[in-house]
Amino acid sequence: MSGWRRRAGESPGEAARRLVARITEHGTPRCEARGRDLITSVGSERLARQSLKGYLLWRISQQIPQSEQDYQRHLVRYLTQRAKVVCQKVLNCDRRSLGMVFHVRLPRIAAERATVLTSRSYRLEEVQKIALRQDERHQVSTWLCFDSGVRAHELATLVRRTELAPSAHRVWRPDRFLCFAEHELYVVVGKGGLVREVAVLRQLAQWLERHRRPCAVRVRDREVNYQSNYDIGFGQAASQSFSTASQKALGWSNGMHGLRHSYAKSRFAMLCNAGLKRSKALEIVSQEMGHFRKEVMFSYLR
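^ that's the sequence the OP posted. Answer follows.
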């Protein structure tokens, strides 16, 4: 446990980066990573660094000496204090990250701050107002997220279906994209490297193709490199453009991720109106969005 200590002249942020790197192995299969308490994605690595940096800063503020060996006691105390100011989701992330870094089992702690479960989706007329406040590159991105349910960072990975096949290690439902008639199939690379098909409205696909690059270029977003085939907004820049435009157009913003909520709700309603049972509709939409547990969809359908 003594290996956690900061080195001379090392800032809490630098210490967090070094220590989280010890338990990070990008590309490791998830089944293996769970058994070894490893972090495998850049996003999870970034969150773990944030959690650890916060804890190390807290230790300094509390003037806890480096010679103190009862790390678990301090971790529990820190999480108990955090429970007063953060929601349960953030607290769970801190607990998981700190437990992995320090190789200790930490008790579950209930956050005192209530998690407010509200809808994050946008209506069509609201998206229209937002898009009018954006340049064309980001307009395309906004409509792709709304119409196809892709994530902001997945926009950088878009390719035609003929250029890349979906992940073969998953069992895909053959009735995905049921009721879609005027759509073209594309492919994106999502969380965990999952390659999945997405349906793009034909008119929107034509608009997208006008932004196709002569050849793919390397782009970077949040410490991750991508091969981008289309000159459109993606990732953090697209999210910022959307949030700024939403504030100007509507006076509020639920973030670009709210467009995935819009897709989930409208798609679920479409399938139910076509006569499908709710459970089957949930399974279809979950796979279209890159999930394989229909229970995940309940947070989107609020």
